[in-house]
Each structure stands twice: as structure tokens, then as C-alpha cells.
Amino acid sequence: MLELLHLTGGYNGEVKVNSLSAEFKKDEITAIVGPNGCGKSTLLKLIVRLLKPMSGKIILDGSDVSSLNRKESAQKISFLPQARSIPHMSAGSLILHGRYPYLSYSRKYTKKDQEAVENAIMITGTEKFRDTPMDRLSGGERQKVYIAMLIAQDTEVVLLDEPTTYLDMNHQFELMNIIKSLKQQGKTVVIVLHDLSLALQYADRVIVMDQGKLTACGAPREICLSGTIDKVFHIHTQRISSSQYVFSPDEKNGLF
After folding, report:
1. What is the DSSP letter of 194?
2. Which segment of 81-90, 176-185, 194-203, 235-244 scores lowest on mean pLDDT?
3. CB-hemisphere CA count at 13 Å for 55?
């Protein structure tokens, strides 16, 4: 289990995440939602140690992650950021790069590394463009390759920052189903989403952030019925079935 204890952090002395405490469990997908600038991406960067916390602790299976070196940390926690450049390599080479934290000083990939890559390719269905340069793939195809790289990395905790951004609906659902398979493998999956419908449909738990703080945490149904989403996003939500929600810009404008 991944646990955050009064975690505070930000950029250039400016606090973006303010004394936030939360638990992320194995075999679960936890979606983090909230307005732009509320600290969602900063939170993930703090967990993966791209940013040094100002205060607080990050505990993984009872141990403080600050005691881990970079290689040990990369063997336990993987991270797919929202913004990244397109590497000048083939899809297969990028997926293989997921095994980098496990390389010895000889820098030679083992049979176990190759097996992990083949498993990742099978799960994501990326075999057909294994040899294709990354810059020749569509946005949806590239995202599948990045997810395959994370699967090959085979970490206990998987962090994803808005992986469905700019994808069409078909690729969004395809990608979310692949992410769902990570949960079924026993992973702790933490995903920042700007699409509330995807968060409510796929997450086991939803964390709502606002102004750097955790304002609510619970099952999707609990979160939606609590009115927290309405208050934070200034919208009106209404449940129309056991698994569907409708959103409008403002309550007075009615539903779409």
C-alpha cells in the first residue's frame, strides 16, 4: 500500500500540495480529479520524487521511499507524465527501455527482461508496430506504447498523469481497459483524469482535490452523491443510471 502523510510540496517555494494525506491500495484504481492548477500533477511528481517534498512522508509497504535510491525507486514506482517529447526510436525499443531500472553494470538485457517486454506487447496489442518509429505513430498508438513500457517496468505502483488527453473516444476506452488490466495484475494504480465520466466509470476510488488539498475521497457513487464535484467544478451532476452521470456547466443551465 502507498500512503501519503501530510505531504506538502510545490515549485520555487510556492505550495501546490498542502498537507495532503491519502492511501492508495493494491488491486485498485484511484482517480484524482480537480480543477486545473489544483495540484494533481504536482502530487504525482512528489510521489515519484521528481520534486522534493517540503514536508511530510511517502510510505510504500511500511517503508519511507526517501530511503530508496533512484534505481530502487524505479523498480517500485513507475510514472507516465502528461507532457513528454517523442523519442527518436522504435516502439519496441521504447518498451524495452522499461527494463532499464533492472539492468546490471553489463547493460545487457536478460531473458526475464525480454519476457517482460513480450508480455507488455501482448497485453497492449502493440506487436504490429513494434518496429515503427515513435514519430510515425498516432497519438493513441503512442500512448499504448508508453503504457506497454510501464507494464514492462513491472512496478508495484503505477502513476499516470492524464493519459487519455487528446485521444478520441475509442482510444480513450481502449487505453482505460488496458489500465484496468494493471489493477487485475495486483498493481496500485493512481491516475489523474480531467474526464469525470472516465473517472467515475473506471476508478474504484476517487480523490477530489482543490487548491492543493484533498476535499473528498471515496467510491465514485459516494463522491458523486456527496455534491463535492458540483462544488469544486461549479457544475450540476445527476445520476441517470447505476453507472452513468450527466454533467452541465451550471445547474441553472440544465443537463445536456
Report:
1. S
2. 235-244
3. 8
| DSSP secondary structure, 144-177, as one string | HHHHHHHHHHT-SEEEEESTTTT--HHHHHHHHH
For 206, the domain range is 2-76+155-253
Q: Which of 191, 239, 233 is nearest to 215 (CA)?
A: 233
Q: Are residues 93 and 124 in the same domain?
A: yes
> Which is nearest to 210 in space by CA: 230, 191, 236?
230
19 plus 122 within the same structural domain: no
Whether residue 53 is found in the same domain as residue 132: no
**Do 191 and 93 sit in the same domain of this protein?**
no
120, 149 in Cβ contact below 8 A? Answer: yes
Q: With bands split at pLDDT 50, 70 and 90, how would you rate the model's confidence at 254?
A: very low
Nearest C-alpha neighbor of 120 from the set 87, 142, 98: 98
CA distance 186 to 61: 14
Rounded Cα gap, residues 237 and 234, in angstroms: 10
| pLDDT single digits (tens) 11-40 | 988 999 999 999 999 999 999 999 999 999
Return mean pLDDT, the chain.
91
Is residue 139 located within the same domain as residue 174?
no
pLDDT-based confidence at 192, cuts 50/70/90? very high
pTM confidence score: 0.90
Q: pLDDT (tens digit, 9 = 90+) per residue, 205-222? A: 999 999 999 999 999 999
**Could you tell me what percentage of the chain is helix, strand and coil, using 3-state DSSP and rounding each to the nearest 5?**
40, 30, 35
Strands (E), 84-168: 157-161
* Same domain flag for 44 and 9: yes
